[in-house]
């Protein structure tokens, strides 16, 4: 056996700096940290603004489609009532005209409601992380 002590794998530096590390003061580190924090906060604010704009546009479009669909439903009911009044007359023609107006209005209403639903689904899909 030898009387020499074993050599350690890593010898710590006396001054605390590793070779090749840049000389950076604490003030520089905090200045960089502050700048990085501000940049992150600005980026997050921009992201949230874009998200709010996307949600606002989707809600606006869905509301417009829903309002138009509701207006058409009321117009359809009015047309149905007028058609029923006309259908009570001895002729059979006005009844078929009433059904034609009713069917067309319901088709348009259904289409608008499906468009509103698709807009809301697309908005939800876009904002889901």
Automatic annotation (TrEMBL):
Basic and acidic residues bias (residue ranges): 15-24
Transmembrane segment boundaries: 63-89, 95-116
Region (Disordered): 1-24
Keywords from the UniProt entry: Membrane, Transmembrane, Transmembrane helix
Stated name of the protein: Holin-X, holin superfamily III
């Amino acid at each position: 056996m030898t009387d020499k002590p074993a050599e350690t794998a890593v010898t710590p530096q006396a001054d605390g700096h590793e070779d090749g590390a840049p000389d950076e003061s604490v003030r520089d580190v905090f200045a960089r940290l502050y700048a990085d924090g501000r940049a992150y906060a600005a980026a997050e604010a921009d992201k949230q603004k874009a998200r709010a704009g996307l949600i606002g546009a989707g809600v606006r479009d869905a509301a417009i489609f829903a309002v138009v669909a509701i207006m058409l439903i009321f117009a359809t009911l009015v047309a149905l009532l007028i058609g029923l009044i006309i259908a009570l007359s001895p002729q059979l023609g006005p009844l078929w005209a009433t059904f034609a107006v009713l069917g067309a209005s319901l088709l348009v209403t259904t289409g608008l409601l499906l468009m509103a639903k698709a807009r809301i689904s697309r908005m939800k899909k876009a904002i889901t992380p």
